[in-house]
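To: structure subgroup
Subject: Chain for Friday's discussion

All,

I'm putting the inputs and outputs inline so they're searchable in the archive.
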Amino acid sequence: MGKPLASPDGASHYVRVEAPVVTLRAMRQDEYENYTARRDMEYVQSLAETMPAEAAMEKARQDQAQFLPQGLATERQRLLIAENTTGQVIGYAWVGLEEPRTKTTDTAWLYDISVEEPYRRSGYGKAILAAVEVVAREAGAARLALNVFGHNAPAISLYQTCGYEVTTQQMAKRL
């Protein structure tokens, strides 16, 4: 709807705010190295909520070897930089152009999406996600799927707002 503005009489009025524009481009090797170091650290932190830290680090290493065996040159994987209209890097995305378990190409897989801290809560997540959907669609995918950690409320909210639905769900209880 827009952002509420309070008027002098205390009533709220809404103004439509333009969505930010992003451009996706291929990640360079130096950017890849920085991105994977940060992504792996965040992934290990998230995994460590459900497994011992050493097991989380090993899982991150195994996943890297499985899904990006040739790094940036891995076939059917797109590692992307999102830039705003002034060319500033505002985020990143990693999309596989096939479903990781079945290798079917009708479903693309969003492995990661992130927005740099200063640009969060400004519509850039939606803009990057929309741009990734275009990449997937242009590659022939009819669907974009993803996993999200249950504790990542901002990401869950973004995906729900953009029309994503839960298709499978894992639950656990600490004993």
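Points worth raising on Friday:
The CA atoms of residues 106 and 142 lie 5 Å apart.
The longest helix spans residues 29-47.

D.
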